[in-house]
Write a structure and sequence with these properties.
Blueprint: H1 6-12, E1 17-23, E2 28-36, E3 42-43, E4 46-49, H2 54-74, E5 80-87, H3 94-110, E6 115-116, H4 125-135, H5 153-172, E7 180-184, H6 188-199, E8 203-207, H7 211-220, E9 224-225, E10 238-241, E11 260-261, H8 273-280, E12 284-285, H9 288-291, H10 294-304, H11 309-334, H12 338-356
Bound molecules: 3-phenylpyruvic acid (PPY).
């Protein structure tokens, strides 16, 4: 396959605009991809990492911004899709990093609201505090001390629980109680999900690669531990990836011994074809961008729409429940995979918005 160039990426992308900002003093490049403003100003997290080259960073920003468009459209949030990728040199020193974030904040501010952001891979709520110094009011997910709504893990977990409930009803005709659910990763979403599931009397097991997290959940909380190398082949009712992306692929899908996959991790499918591989095996896959919408919804709802945490939880649970039910109905009727069904529904909503304007 020929290597991507900036030109070929721009040619094949269906989004609106890309802002490429060289931050020369720090040797970084800020890339803001605005995929769609059809439903409202674009929103999406800021991913900061080291990339092998500029086209790789641009490809990531373009792909991730499109997912945000679908994510918001699927749950009827009046928000467009965007994403920022900051390609940085390895081992950025912390003072330099803060300068870069401030520069980035000014850049966002200068766009006057067409793009708002929040945390993503490689950035934290503390980083949002720094970006907001110059980027406010277009920065979500600051620390509570600086007026933010705090960790988005718990609202995200509310959405995952709602997804698990729908899938249990549809597939097993019952509640999550007594269902064997295997949670991969006990970060801020996975840990909260385990708490919620135990409160519903589910049979939970977990896996993680971090020794301290394993010791806590296995020895203090007494949750069954599954070794990470056995996670895919371990029989369960539902597998819930809540950590890494790309875990559903050509190698792992044949090993799966579950009826469904419902988790919060971003980009769970290794490649597009994996949705069809799961479908062919009769394993229901709840599209990640539907199940994990609670993070973005919670931050935006609580910080700019005046929702309380209780109201955010209610809206997130309803949004995930309704969109999963709709897509399961469509997938069944058309005998198509769930990812395709979810995208079709989101595309229809975007087309309706087009027709109205
Ligand atoms: C995501 O859900 O993947 C995000 O990027 C989260 C987000 C979206 C919009 C504003 C803040 C955070």
């Amino acid at each position: 396959m020929a290597a991507d160039t900036i030109e070929s990426l721009l040619q094949s992308w269906d989004g609106e605009s890309v802002i490429l900002h060289p931050d020369r003093p720090r040797g970084a490049t800020i890339i803001i991809a605005i995929h769609s403003t059809r439903l409202g100003p674009a929103g999406g997290g800021t991913r900061m990492k080291n990339y092998p080259d500029l086209p790789s960073a641009l490809r990531d920003a373009m792909r991730l911004s499109a997912v945000m468009t679908y994510k918001f459209a699927a749950v009827n949030m009046p928000q467009g899709g965007g994403k920022c990728v900051i390609a940085v040199p390895p081992n950025l020193e912390s003072g330099v990093r803060a300068e870069l974030l401030r520069r980035y904040g000014s850049l966002i501010h200068s766009f006057g609201g067409i793009f708002s952001t929040g945390p993503d891979v490689g950035t934290t709520d503390k980083d949002m505090d720094v970006i907001a110094e110059s980027g406010s009011p277009y920065v979500f997910g600051r620390t509570p001390a600086r007026g933010g709504s705090g960790n988005s893990g718990p609202p995200t977990a509310i959405g995952v629980l709602a997804g698990l409930k729908v899938v249990c009803e549809e597939l097993f005709g019952g509640a999550v109680a007594q269902k064997r659910i295997l949670v991969q990763g006990v970060g801020s979403v996975g840990a909260e999900l385990i708490r919620l599931l135990r409160a519903q009397s589910a049979q939970v097991a977990f896996s993680d690669v971090d020794a301290r997290a394993v010791a806590h959940w296995r020895d203090v909380e007494h949750v069954e531990f599954i070794s990470p190398d056995k996670i895919y082949e371990t029989p369960c009712d539902i597998f819930s990836p809540c950590a890494l992306g790309g875990v559903l692929n050509e190698k792992t899908i044949p090993q799966l011994a579950c009826r469904a996959v419902v988790g919060s991790a971003n980009n769970q499918l290794g490649e597009e074809r994996d949705a069809e591989r799961l479908h062919a095996r009769g394993i229901f896959y709840a599209p990640d961008f539907i199940v994990n919408v609670g993070g973005a919804m919670g931050l935006i709802g609580m910080e700019s729409l005046g929702w309380s945490r209780a109201e955010a939880d209610k809206r997130i649970a309803a949004a995930v429940t309704n969109s999963l039910r709709d897509l399961m109905r469509l997938a069944k009727k058309e005998n198509i995979n769930s990812e395709l069904a979810a995208r079709r529904i989101a595309e229809e909503k975007l087309a309706q918005a087009n027709a109205k304007s």
